[in-house]
Amino acid sequence: MSGKLPEQCCSILASTGELIVIKRGERGYYRSEWNTDSREENKHIADFANRRMGITPAQLEAMVCGSMCGWDVPGAQPQFYLDMATREKSVAITGHIKHPVLSTYFPVKGHLHTYRIMGTEVHYIDLSSMPKMMLEERLGYTYCPELVTGKPMIPVTYQQGQNGSYTLHLEIGAFQSMKVEHEGYTVMVAAQVGSREIALGFSPKAPHRYATWERMPERSSSSAHRYHNGKYYEQYADAMQDCENRIAAAYARYCRTPHKNHKHKDSTGRER
Question: Which end of the chain, N or C, is less packed with Cβ atoms under 10 Å?
Answer without folding.
Answer: C
